[in-house]
Amino acid sequence: MGMLLRLALRNLRLHWVRTLIVGFLLTIGTWLVVVGQGALEAIQAGMQRSVVDTLSGHLQIYSGAAKDDLELYQSAALAAPDLGQINDFGALKKVVTAIPEVRAIVPMGLGRSLVWGDSPIETKLEELRGAIRDQKLDRVPAITAHVRAILKSMNGDLDKLQKVASDVKESAQQREDLARANSDAFWKEFEANPLDALEFLENRISPLGVQSGFYFFNYVGTDPQAFATNFKLFRMQAGEMIPQGQRGFMFNSNYYEKFVKHRTARRLDEIKEARELTGATIAGDDTLKRMVEHNRSQVTQITEQLDPQRSIEVKALLQKELASQEDDLGKLVADFLNVDDQNFDRRYEVFYKEIAPRIRLYAYMVGDEIALYGQTKNGYPRAVNVKVWGVFRYEGLEKSGLAGIYNVMDLMSFRDLSGMSELVTPEEVAKLKADSGIKALDRDKAEDSLFGEGEVVEAVDNKPIGDVMGDSLTGLRRAAQAAQDAKFTQAQLETGPVVNAAVFLNDEANLTPERIEAARAAVDAALNSDSSKWGQPMPVADPDDIAKKQAAGEIIQPLKPARVVTWESAQGPLVGGLSTGITVFFYGLVGLIFFVAFIVILNSLLMSTMERVQEIGTIRAMGAQRGFVLRMFAIEGAAMAVLFGALGIGLGALTLAALGASGIKASSEILFFVFGGRELRPVLDGGHLLVAFVIITSVTLVSILIPAIAAARIPPIAAMQAKE
Amino acid sequence: MSQVNDAVVALKGVYKDYPLGKTIVHAVRGVDLTLARGEFAVLAGPSGSGKTTVLNLIGCVDVATRGVVEVAGRDTARLTESARTRLRLETLGFIFQSFNLIPVLDLYQNVEFPLLLRKDIDKVERARRVKDLIERVGLTAQSKQRPGELSGGQRQRVAIARALVTRPAIVLADEPTANLDSATGRSILDLMREMNRDGTTFLFSTHDPVVMQAAQRVIKIADGVIVDDGRAGAAAKIVEALNLGKSPEAAAAH
Questions:
Q1: Do the beta carbons of residue A105 and residue A92 sit within 8 Å?
Q2: Using CA atoms in the order A507, A510, A511, A512, what is the torsion angle rounded to 10 degrees?
Q3: Interior CA angle at A675 toward A672 and A681, to 5°?
Q4: Pairing of β A381-394 and β A562-566
Q5: Residues 6+ away with beta carbon under 8 Å from A594
Q6: Residues B99, B103, B108, B112: is their CA dihedral positive or negative?
Q7: B109 contacts chain A (CB < 8 A)
Q8: HEC-encoded secondary structure of A489-546
Q9: Contacts 24+ apart (CB under 8 A), A175-179
Q10: Measured between alpha carbons, how far is A65 from A507 in angstroms, rounded to an integer?
């Protein structure tokens, strides 16, 4: 053995070039395995944090009657998945929270609604009402001047609208209303009785405005208190939580900044972020240049929002700031927004200090109301108005678009919007109707009510969407308004239906995938062994569905009342694929490096075997058995593995220690999600070192196998063949 | 004669054919040969005469196509590859034309190497034998040097020490002086002759007349057939005696 080791070491030294090349590959490979595993583990933990602590919880429960699988991070598909519903969340909660592994359960429902951006007239009227309400009477003249300017321009808008509208009677009425609003007499009336005049404007004129685009708002309908308590990364950023028992909406900060913020401000933010995060310059980066160009060319997005008084203020300010005599506000703003690397920081500061407070920085601000439009599974249109209470963020994930995908809404509004609301007793129905002023209607007269009398109409809930589309949305709006004012109790929230529920487990610090799976099985058993405990009916198989599955050769699972899945399965393929992709990429890279190492070792050792034919023949002639030659190569391989493996492991451990101390900063949007925060701190783990060592030893020994066998086959007679 | 009992090598009707492309080369064609213990014999013949083949057959690194090759009383054709290897380790010593030392090992380690393959020799005995042989070949001072640092003659001395360290019954030497100048060759011969006096059988292949002169017995081979197997003449013996008389000085001089 001593001789073999000596032989091996001497050989390694003698063929030092080969040894260095192979050694380099083996060291790099081992280093990568150590560092990569540490990073991968941290990434897996990070992604788990990003999913579990913002949206999924450890487990998700949904109806066994669901036709689709639950995918929390849905791809952009517009069609809502059919997830069925859990009829009684309260009963579910009772059963699930009785399981010892379970810490908490949060009711959920995912949805997406169309939201029309406010028209300029709507926005201004809101501002006017606010000024009157808050007794800021000095602002009123400036706002009314702005309103009158907008009203003048609306004549043209109305012409466009009427080209597509069919109801002649209605459009005549609209023209009449607009003419009235544009008359001086009307504004005399306003001075005398502002609130009545305002109501006329809001009810009759506002709907005529051309809406400024539309948004799709994704939301989780939930119990906001339970949501905020259990999703660990949840933090309030602005405004306040939706109070218990009240309806409302909270924006996710990422979504809010990206989609709701004034475009100009958003672009300035993006330029600032790129300059700070990646050190990009406006001069050297085409994307940033384009953003500056957009801001410069779209000055009307700012000037249109400035009422006459503020226009004067901003003009004076910019003339001073730019040391310019220019009188045209648009040109001044364009000049101001034409930023470069030298003046950017200053202009950014001035923008936020002087201009931002004078415009509407977000399309929806805390305190505003949003009208969300949606439709039920059966195609009935729904609308609810919700108040924006606040903006929340996920700690560390503020910049992640994936974590920013869902806003939060109260569960009651979610139920209304998705048509899940079920009034439990006739008394409750009656009370709610009395509270909100809804009255039952004869279906034949529904149309009159919708378009003419301005009554809130229940029937609209039960009409196909085609019947109430177009400008007849007014009725829906009113129903939505009524719904908004209806408060509810915690018991009402908890006992009603939900789409899904997030389950949080105990002893979170020590949760392994195995323990999560065990808990999943426990919850599954509790819910599905006796569904009468929680009142969920046994789903009835759909014969069409069975036929389809049979045709596709799929296995038909017996239906169960509930489906219980782990967070990994609930996240869906979009995010799951990301995790898989990273893992595959890493192992692919490791595989590639070791494959190259394998080839190089194989090749160089085969060559060296050729060179050593006589030497090996001599050793054999002197009486060494084949096994001795095999061992000779094995020890040479093992010596390389130990030497370079130790080097790679050492370097890897050092790298991990350094990275663990400093952290890897997330430098792109997706990395925030992958890292589960602003930085990744890979962990040094003895197990990883062992795995790295086992891998490098196996790779080396396998690559040495073929040359070793070839060498062992060298016959002793080879010793006799003279070399020279 | 008592040769049969004393025979360490016996070849009976041995043939060896090699395929060479599509033809078959008959390298050895019916060789009968016996070597007694303690002989110092030469296989002489031109290149391609079959002398190396005979040496390979006796050395158990090749197997006869036909006939019997007995080494130390064992029919090598009936042995497994592993048993033949063991036979080589225990009975045979090799000296090669190009020395065949292991370049990465120093002189001492090269000599020690075959003993490390033997489980029956302990460390103390091993060291004793290695040191003794290195001293006898006159290279004690160089024992830490690598083959690359030694002259051709010195390398062949190391090879001789290595061949003898296992105390083999027979040492086979394939053209041991071919790569050496004549003076060095002579001293190497002297050294082997001296070892021979301890009872080790030597068989060389050579076409060097000096080597032939030194031998007790010259077996001439041509075209794979033994053409002459004569004891060396009296004159040769005188030369030998003279050489022997000189050899200690010659060895020391190296």
A1: yes
A2: -160
A3: 130
A4: unpaired
A5: A29, A695, A696, A699
A6: negative
A7: yes
A8: CHHHHHHCCECEEEEEECCHHHCCHHHHHHHHHHHHHHHHHCHHHCCCCCCCCCHHHH
A9: A177/A204, A177/A205, A177/A208, A178/A151, A178/A154, A178/A205, A178/A208
A10: 31
How many other C-beta atoms lie within 10 A of the C-beta of residue B120? 7
pLDDT per position as a tens digit, A531-553: 778 878 777 777 777 777 778 77
A584 touches chain B (CB under 8 A): no
Q: What is the mean pLDDT of residues A239-259?
A: 93
Q: Which of B117, B126, B162, B174 best probes binding to A when mutated, by most A CB atoms within 10 angstroms?
A: B117
Question: Is the C-alpha dihedral spanning A693, A694, A699, A701 positive or negative?
Answer: positive
Would you say B90 and A623 are in contact if contact means Cβ atoms under 8 Å apart?
yes
Is the CB of residue B174 less than 8 Å from the CB of residue A621? no
Residue for token digits 């609306």? A154
Q: What gap in Å lies between CA A337 and CA A460, rounded to an integer? A: 48
Helix (H) or strand (E) holding A243: none
Q: How far is A600 from chain B (nearest CA, A)?
A: 23
Q: Residue A645 carries which side chain, given as an amino acid letter?
A: G
Mean residue pLDDT across chain A: 84
Distance from CA of B5 to the nearest CA of A (A): 26
Handedness of CA A67, A72, A77, A78 (dihedral sign): positive
A278-292 mean pLDDT: 90
φ, ψ (nearest 5 deg) of residue A33: -65, -45
Listed ranges A149-163, A258-272, A418-432; the one with the highest mean pLDDT = A258-272
Secondary structure E strands in A90-152:
102-116
- Integer CA distances (angstroms), A476 to A127, A542, A605, in order: 23, 34, 80
- Flag whether residue B97 sits within 8 Å of chain A, measured between CB atoms: yes
- Cα distance between residue A674 and residue B56, in whole Å: 69
Q: Which residue ranges of chain B lie beneath pLDDT 70?
A: 1-5, 231-254
- Residue type for position A510: N
CB contact under 8 A, A10 and B117: no
- Min Cα distance B85 → chain A (Å) is 5
Phi, psi of A363 (to 5 degrees): -60, -30
With beta carbons under 8 A apart, name residues in chain A contacting B85. 620, 623-625, 716
Measured torsion, CA atoms of residues A42, A48, A50, A53, in degrees rounded to the nearest 10: -130
Report the complex ipTM. 0.87
Closest residue of chain A to B162, computed from CA coordinates: A622
A61, A96 Cβ separation under 8 angstroms: yes
**Shortest distance, CA A591 to any CA of chain B (angstroms):** 34
Query: From residue A648, how far is each of A16, A35, A680, B19, B141 by CA, in Å?
Result: 18, 10, 22, 51, 42
Q: Looking at beta carbons, which residues of chain B come within 8 Å of A715?
A: 61
Q: Which two tokens stand for residue A485?
A: 């004012």
Query: What's the full length of chain B, in residues?
Result: 254
Set of chain A residues whose Cβ sits within 8 Å of the Cβ of B62? 717
**What is the pTM for the complete model shown?**
0.72
- The sheet carrying B74-75 orders its strands as B23-36, B7-20, B66-71, B74-75
